[in-house]
Amino acid sequence: MTLAENKTLIEVKHLKEYFDISTGMFRSKPLKAVDDVSFSITKGETLGLVGESGCGKTTVGRTLLHLYKPTGGEIWYDGKQVKTKKDIKEFRKKATMVFQDPYSSLNPRMTVSDIIGEPLDVHKLTSNKKERMERILELMDYVGLNSEHAARYAHEFSGGQRQRIGIARSLAVNPDFIVCDEPVSALDVSIQAQVINMFDELQEKLGLTYLFIAHDLLVVRHISDRIAVMYLGRMVELADAEEIYNKPLHPYSQSLLSAVPVPDPKIARTNKRIVLTGDIPSPLNAPSGCPFRTRCRYACDKCAESMPEFKEVSTGHFVACHRVDEINS
Amino acid sequence: MALLEVKNLKTSFFTDAGEVKAVNDVSFTLDRGKVLGIVGESGSGKSVTAYSIMQILAGTGKIVGGSIKLDGQELVGAGEKVMKNVRGNKISIIFQDPMTSLNPTYTIGKQLMEAILLHTDRNKKEAYDRAVEMLRLVNVNEPEKRMKQYPYEFSGGMRQRVMIAMALACEPDILIADEPTTALDVTIQAQILELMGSLQEELGMAIIMITHDLGVVAQICDEVIVMYAGSICEQGTADEIFYNPCHEYTKGLMRSIPTADTAGTKLRPITGTPIDLLNMPKGCPFAPRCDNAMKICIKHRADRMEINENHAASCWVNVKKGLDSGEIELDTEGGDDLG
Question: What residue in B sits closest to A268 (Cα-Cα)?
Fold first, then answer.
């Protein structure tokens, strides 16, 4: 993918999203799902966002589109801050989402043409029925669906085809930016590859920018230009896709990448895995200081005292770790 | 003698829409201490094969043919009394979803002890000790305290450890793991796979690992069976399957996985969608999606053909290759279909 125009399309500054969790009558505690996350995405680029369940990657995607109201921080689109209701409505014509579960994200009582046409109706993008139908058929053609399918219902389709319907819906408003929230994790390997290729082709054809959220690291590496790793609501590392795979600097990224099962028996047998002990802590009782320190092999006193700064260690490579230099020297 | 011998197993589900041949003529053997992987996409019959061995099929499902021999003893048609002795005692199973396979209303201890009390003649005190010992074996911290807790107090990885502890409590000869790590995160998956590997070495049991993740297979399996539409399309040692795939479906699967080399390029996926088991074609079930399908593939299903002593596949493409290179010769007419 060539980044012809090196223009920042999306910029997120110190994004915070806290959910209030009731802990008794009149009492509540904030669950810090996303805490102080900053990144930017260039036009035409794919940023991969990885992490384990509960790390806040989906919440980043949803808050970014104002599906949740951010607790703090700023979201900038194309040089303008998205803040007021009017901004948000305009923004949603430019930024859409593809959801993880192709089974629950399509209304079973609507036909395919109504599902894909709904965004057109909401934003009043077509002036008459004929134009609306033409646009729907064009969108179906983009994602490889047959025009005969327009009058059918979602239950008549397989998982892969449903995901295509969801993608056609997200393309309806002619967006520049799509948040893809685990779009292939519910699909079989053979179908997964078809959908990944489609994302690639659509990006080339329509000049799209993606935030690609997934937990399958092989898929993320294939599709992303840059990759961000999250842990317990914080971003711990961000770098070029190849760089992060070949030279991960944060201890969490290192163990995460070493844990990926490689589909090659000889490599798999000799691979040294860094197996983490214990489970991811509850975000309600996040550890003090660095969130990863309870499972980190290198944790020291300093890690418990203060949160490491998310700093650039080499060009475009950001890491949040106190001991990054010692560990990797 | 092989520990488990499955021969021409056929299992069907009888639905209102017709007979679904979920497992169609599956044969394999499993030796003591080996790890066998069964891979395939959803609907390929890999789980139903496992459930048939345990005979825990849903109401509409029935074994309609073939034989399953455990240590020489025939299990098909052996009756519920025999099977009760086999399940849990000789063959154990762990399921994909650790969230739903534990009863939320009983403590972990009670559920662990239930399996032990049912299958052995230990008394309550001994069963308790055994349960604690098993929890310690699967690396659960503070097992005595954990015994009194309920499943909701456990994380996904911990619950899967409890399931493994439960399955191994009676020292089975065979452990069937039905997608044991699919619902877990990669770092937890690595912990569980590591645990299964070390327990297997320690206790010397055989494992049948059912998964759709070829990475998991590469990591722990000695032998691999690839299933498509209810039948085995290829089987062999892990090295043979990964480095010398001889069925077009297996080759397609290998190509579909993103790797270091595919970054920035297009993947070469298998085209089309999985087959409808209610409308099976006459020939090879994979032919409609196969790039190299020949006339014969649509007319006849290929039999199991030996590639070498460690490897067999059911694919006409191998015959074509052999003919082209002069390795095999046809003694009958019909060569036209191979093209």
Answer: B219
Q: Return the DSSP state at A134.
A: H
**Chain B contact set for A225 (CB, 8 A):** none
B188 CB neighbours in chain A (<8 A) are 52, 279
Scan for tokens 């020949």, then name that residue: B294
CA distance B244 to chain A (A): 12
Q: How far is CA A151 from CA A101, A131, A154, in A?
A: 22, 17, 10
Q: What mean pLDDT do residues A115-129 have?
A: 93
Contact assessment for residue B218 and residue A265, using Cβ atoms and an 8 Å cutoff: yes
Distance from CA of B190 to the nearest CA of A (A): 6
Question: A243: Cβ–Cβ under 8 A, 6 or more apart, which residues?
Answer: A316, A317
**CA–CA dist A213, A51 (Å, integer):** 9
Distance from CA of A190 to the nearest CA of B (A): 5
Q: pLDDT tens digits, residue range B270-317?
A: 888 888 888 888 899 999 999 999 999 999 999 999 999 999 999 999
Beta strand A80-81 with A8-24 is: unpaired
**Chain A, window 46-75: residues with a beta carbon less than 8 angstroms from a chain B beta carbon:** 52-53
Q: Where are the alpha helices (DSSP H) in chain B?
A: 46-54, 80-86, 108-119, 124-137, 143-147, 156-168, 186-203, 214-220, 238-243, 248-256, 295-299, 316-324
Residue of B nearest to A200 (CA): B266
Q: How far is CA A53 from the centre of its chain?
A: 12
Task: Decide if the complex's ipTM is over 0.95.
Answer: no
pLDDT over 60 (residue A3): no
Give A177→chain B minimum CA distance, Å.
20
Query: In this complex, is the C-beta atom of A21 within 8 Å of any C-beta atom belonging to chain B?
Result: no
Cβ distance of A193 and B270 shorter than 8 Å: yes
Residue A28 in this model has a pLDDT that exceeds 90: no
What is the distance between the alpha carbons of residues B186 and A255, in angstroms, rounded to a whole number? 10
What SS3 state is found at B35? strand
Point out which residues pair with A22 in neighbouring strands.
A28
Rounded Cα–Cα distance for residues A102 and A278 (Å): 32
Q: Do A197 and B266 touch (CB under 8 A)?
A: yes
How far is A157 from A103, CA to CA, in rounded Å? 10
In chain B, which residues have pLDDT < 70?
Answer: 330-339
Task: For the sheet with B4-15, list strands across it.
Answer: B18-30, B4-15, B61-70, B73-74
Confidence (pLDDT) at A2: 46
Q: Is the dihedral of CA B218, B219, B224, B230 positive or negative?
A: negative
Are B150 and B118 in contact, with CB atoms under 8 Å apart? no
Indicate yes or no: CB of A263 within 8 angstroms of CB of B254: yes
**A18: which 2 tokens?**
């806290």
Chain A residues 200-229 with CB within 8 Å of chain B:
200, 215, 217-219, 221-223
Nearest to A179 by CA among A216, A209, A201: A209
Q: Running DSSP on this structure, what letter comes out for residue B259?
A: -
